[in-house]
Amino acid sequence: MGAPIQEKWIYKNRxxxxxxxxxxxxxTFDYEAGKIKRAPKFFQKCGIEWLWRLAKExxxxxxxxxxxxxxIKIVFSKDKTKGNFE
Length: 86
Known about the structure:
The protein is built from six helices and no strands. It is mainly alpha-helical.
């Protein structure tokens, strides 16, 4: 699904999931399946593997720019317990 779609799906379906914690996995399964290669070690060690993926797939820019907006919405949400960000 990709971010922020997967996060919104998790939030909408949180009561049906019947779990205490849930997390989107991003490209984890693509790496594990051998569909895409990981970034060079330098990018991994610096925590900027996302930048490598963006360079390899520029079409992701719009989706990736949605992440900071999503985070800001959560941080400045008035109701911290419900995550009022639909």
